[in-house]
Amino acid sequence: MSLECLLLPGMRELHLYCTASSELAGSPAKGVAPDVSSYEGLTLATWSQADQTVWLFSNEAPDLIRELLG
Predict the structure, then answer these.
(1) Residues 6+ apart with CB under 8 A from 16
(2) Which of 41, 39, 20, 33 is closest to 67 using CA atoms?
(3) What is the pLDDT of residues 9-60, one digit of tens each?
(4) Bridge partner list, 65
């Protein structure tokens, strides 16, 4: 698993985790748009590309995350 921490203007954080899809049961299908959900102020986007599954965590609103991933 790898982790990248990214900053938006104003020191707002995004945390991007990646791991091999083959290591997971039920990873998202490749080529499908990211699934973005929110719970108690935290936003999670999940998707698969190439042979990797990706999770993006943030305190940002789901609409902003969808725009960034657009």
Answers:
(1) 3, 4, 5, 6, 54, 55, 56
(2) 33
(3) 999 999 999 999 999 998 998 889 999 999 999 999 999 999 999 999 999 9
(4) none
CA angle 57, 62, 67 (to 5 degrees): 100
What CA–CA distance (Å, rounded) separates 64 from 26? Answer: 26
Domains of the chain, by residue range, sit at 2-69
Q: Which amino acid is at 65?
A: I
Q: Are 52 and 27 contacting, i.e. CB atoms less than 8 angstroms apart?
A: no
Amino acid at 63: D
Q: Roughly how many angstroms between the first and final C-alpha of the chain, as a whole number?
A: 24
- Identify residue 36 by its one-letter amino acid code: V
Residue 34 pairs in a beta bridge with none
